[in-house]
Amino acid sequence: MKIDLIRERLLAHRPETIAENGYDRAAVAVVLRESSAGAEFVAIRRSEREGDPWSGHMALPGGREHPSDDDLVMTVARETHEEVGIDLRAHAQLLGRLDDVPAFAGGRPIRLVITPFVFAINTPVEFALNRREVERAFWVPLGFLTRPEARGRIRFNLAGNELEHDAYVYQGHTIWGLTYRILSRFLDVL
């Protein structure tokens, strides 16, 4: 899958938005680069931190909106730079946005709406990880997620209940929950 095709599909997409409802807002970035195998995106493994409902999970760079942010694009640019050292304003083009996603933690909805944005890197970049927030970052071929071997399940115990969810598995990393939902919707758009 090439970035030019992704750009075309995103231009035709009309994202579903969740109206301002008093919930906190956050934004994440699907940061793409072109490779010989097609588009790749940045995946991160969040650092283990007490009080973080997504501690240790696979994710996309991003975070909560600050009062000083002009808009959610500024939020995602700031957070991506803080977490992985990629300056989206200087080294990327905004291709579009995806559907807003309500957040869940501990199996329950929380008062947070996340807006995913898609960017294409226009120059080589190096990761500079904020280890307090990000344990690891790496590139994942977007097309890999469409292959049968990428499909998996995750099982875990929540408050005494055994739960199972769909997931993507890439080189031993399990992408599930919010990030799985965002990437699945992205693939549907494409």
The number of helical elements comes to 4
Give me the count of strands: 11
Tell me the fraction of residues in β-strands, as a range. Answer: 35-45%
Q: At CATH's second level, what is the architecture?
A: Alpha-Beta Complex
Question: What is the N-to-C succession of helices and strands?
Answer: HEEEEHHEEEEEEEH
Structural write-up:
It is a single chain. Helices cover 21% and strands 43% of the residues. Strands 1, 2, 3, 4, 5, 6, 7 and 8 form an eight-stranded mixed beta sheet that branches. The protein is globular, with a radius of gyration of 16 Å. With 190 residues, it is an alpha+beta fold. The protein is built from four helices and eleven strands; from the N terminus they run αββββααβββββββα. It has a single domain (3-144), classed as Nucleoside Triphosphate Pyrophosphohydrolase (Alpha-Beta Complex). The protein has helices spanning 3-12, 72-84, 88-91, 177-189, and strands at 24-35, 38-46, 58-59, 62-64, 92-97, 101-105, 108-121, 134-141, 151-158, 161-170, 173-176. A hairpin with a 2-residue loop joins β1 (24-35) and β2.
